[in-house]
Amino acid sequence: MLDFCEHAGGLVTPFFVTKKGGKLRLIFDCRVVNLRFKKAPKLAMGSGSSWSSLEVAEGDQLWIAQSDIKYYFYSLALPAELAKFFCLPSIDASLLKDWLVPASLGGLANNQGRCYPRLRVVPMGWSWAMWIAQRAHQFQALLGAGLNQDRLLVDGQPAPSLKDGTPIVLPYCDNLNIAGTNRELVQQAKDGAVKRLRAVGFLVHEEVDACLQVDSLGYTINGSTGIVAPQPLKAERLVKGLVYISRRPTMSGKQLEHVMGHCIHHMLLKRELLSLFRAFYDFISQCYDTPVKVWPSVAKEARWAASLLRLCHSNLRRPWDLLVTASDASLTGIAVTSTLWDHQDVVAVGAMNERWRYRGKHPSDKPRQSALGLLDPLLDVESDNYEINPDFKEIPEHLLLPADWKLRYSARMFDKEGIMILEGRGVEASLRHRLRAQRSFGKRCLNLGDNLGLTLGFCKGRFSSYPLLRIARRVTALTVAGDLNPAHRWHPSERNTADAGSRKWEPKGAPACHENGKEERDIQKSKLLFSIPEEEGEDRANFEKEELTCRIIDKSQVAAVMPCTNLDYERRLAEFMSFISERGLALKTQPSTDAAIVDFLHLMWEEGRELHEGLRFYAAFVAKHPEYGRSGHLRLPRTKRALTGWKKLAPCMTRPPMPWEVACLIASHMIQLGHVISALILVLLFSLYGRPTEILELRQKDLIRPRSAGGFFTVHLHPEEAMIASKVGLYEESLMLDSPFCLWLGPLLLKLVTAPDCQDLLFPLEYHTWKLHWDAAIKAAGLQELGYVPYQLRHGGPSHDHFFKLRSMLEIKLRGRWSADSTLKRYEAGGRIEQELLRLGAVRLRAAKDAAKNLEAKLTAACNNSMPSSLKPSGASKRPLGLQRSSASGAGGRTKVSSSSSSPAPPTSHKQLRMQGWTPRGGM
């Protein structure tokens, strides 16, 4: 390793680090010497995560052989011209005589003065050491194995194909891995490579013949199952460390940095999991050398990582999904299109990574020298044969023809957000659309987008912008839930087939016409307004323009809240104004307004009202004065503090779930009172976890029959053509009537349908009428003191299904269409159902259980008696018997709703409905 010289071209100092087995590794501090060398060229190297890019066909097995070079760096000789730069600190020359150093190694004739030990081998710590070591190992291994350069498995280019059985080579420093689907060829290539390495003087040890499971670069590769995963012992230690961090110990950012480094190494198999970390980075940068108690946000991310690391693996047998999606967004909407590609096209496009686009120097920089082979690898470092090919492959144009793509999903965006955020929502929507089909689960999938920055971020797995990071986390949740391995590619916006679908809601230039005649005149007036010459009517034009703008804004603001909600808001605001006039308060300034609202809330608190009434009043005030809202420029800090204090002093009590037996008892009394339709609605609400309003808005065509015997009926909620969104603004939701305790519900509901495509309402009832039937049944059952309300049916269904293990929590979440997991906590307490049953008492409990046993028979008999299978003859009403609505044109415009019983509900006028806060549907 050493010889001696009189003059040193550069000095290095040795130090040691521990390695596996308790041995020491010799490294040299070459930082000063490295400044005298130019930067080493980029080198295409493999890593542990490179294994995840391989594709193994179904039925094949992956055979892997390994070897290792002993003392590799110190087996590489340095030329004399370079050795002079790597000298150790000087020593007394007389020591050479004592050590019997021969003249060939620098023994001095006089052995006087001082001399310098000089390295004859490549030192670990030199900036070019890794480049030289990797180049030498790659070249000799390929030469001995008889393989070409295109069989290298490296980061930054698509993995070689394994279909023909030809092995691939993954050299990493002193380690050599050879893999393939043909055991004999793998063993032959490994033996040839080892023979060649020994022939040139390397010491090869730790040989592993071709087998089906090995450990390589921190991962375990199982060739029989095709699974690449972190080594179990290391992964378990890391999980325990993350669990410890989740308990919020005291540690420094430097300590957390070590843990995060291991997490990143494991998550390279599933890059989307890197989006978990945000608080980790902040903690490391702010508390690097200072031990502090771990932040709650860091503890939360540690809990996430500890759970998801167990899912961090790569399946080499995972097939490609031939369904390719493209997403796009504009300032007004998002859209998703899809098409089917051939397998070879999907593989060719999906195997490329957008992060490789900017690797290496452009080949056209020196085309002549490159063609003639005159480039010097030490001067023209980008010309290295082992570097990544800079000729990045774009998506072929013939795959992006608009005629081959079909619009699958589009949604209007109402919030003002940046285009990057909207583009990210489009990517999320494309994954949601893909997961609607079971065939897409567990596959590699390809999505196209025209925002290069966003695509690069998804390929990297994380974003520095927190709004984009939140979207990346939602995308990660979808990929984990669907067991997907997504690939994101960029294509120009001119070829994005989803562009037109995302712009459906952009203005056409002129204002849209409205059906209301008054609004139509407003539009015509605006056209005349802008045609007024500026010098003749500038003041008048400005006045007319402001008047028209205010009128349109008022109409849009009123339409933002439902009519019945507006009536409730007006009642609460009237009470507030009465309070102000009695106290002599004023609302002239923001502080006085804030103080007046706090006084009114305090009065409500003293009167013993519930918190929801205070929140309802606050919502009414903000709806009337949007400048105090979330997006307004004024604030009510004291009001918000008062509501927070009210919540702490009198926390809201969640409604307990309604047991199935209680629901059956109420439905039985509805049948006895003649309200058969109301009983059907009650059972449907319980089964679908539905909201009363959305169930009452169902049309007859929204009840879909099963295609085959033994199938389930389906209910289509919130169709897009009806323009009635759900509570959270979603359309096109479908739920199956597959609850095992009421499989008979679908055929009974079918008796209400006159035609499969009928646009009439399925249930000819208003909510107020159904609520009257509910109250009457509650009274008949003697349940008034228990305080049951209809919305408890939405809580009772999921609690019942979870208690009896009819559905998983994920299925309950999807069926109830809840977005937050915290909402599901109430349904995990199965004991609440037992508590509610005990509240009934012995007599009512016995009646409830009998009602649950006999409900099917009662409803079937009631429906058969009031709704015969044969409808009225032609010329009569198209509605089923027992459901006909007759409208009388008498005084007051009363509308009668007759149920299937002999005692119809009393008529209610429109005036009475408005006094009660309800607005009848059109046509009533």
Structure description:
It is a single chain. Helix content is 41%, strand content 13%. It has six domains: 2-222, Alpha-Beta Plaits (2-Layer Sandwich), CATH 3.30.70; 231-315, no CATH class; 320-362 and 397-502, Ribonuclease H-like superfamily/Ribonuclease H (Nucleotidyltransferase, domain 5, 2-Layer Sandwich); 517-559; 563-649; 660-879, hpI Integrase, Chain A (Orthogonal Bundle). The protein is α+β, with helices and mostly antiparallel strands. Mean pLDDT is 81; it is low at 361-372, 381-389, 510-553 and 868-924. A five-stranded mixed β-sheet has the order 18-17-16-19-20, with helices on both faces. It has a four-stranded antiparallel β-sheet with strand order 7-8-4-9, with helices on one face. It has a four-stranded antiparallel β-sheet with strand order 10-11-12-15. Strand 24 (885-887) and strand 25 form a beta hairpin. Residues 489-518, 864-924 are annotated as: Disordered. InterPro entries: DNA/RNA_pol_sf (IPR043502), DNA_brk_join_enz (IPR011010). Residues 491-507 have a biased composition (Basic and acidic residues). One of its GO terms (molecular function) is DNA binding.
Quick rundown:
Helices cover 41% and strands 13% of the residues. It is α+β, with helices and mostly antiparallel strands and 924 residues long. It is elongated, with a radius of gyration of 37 Å.
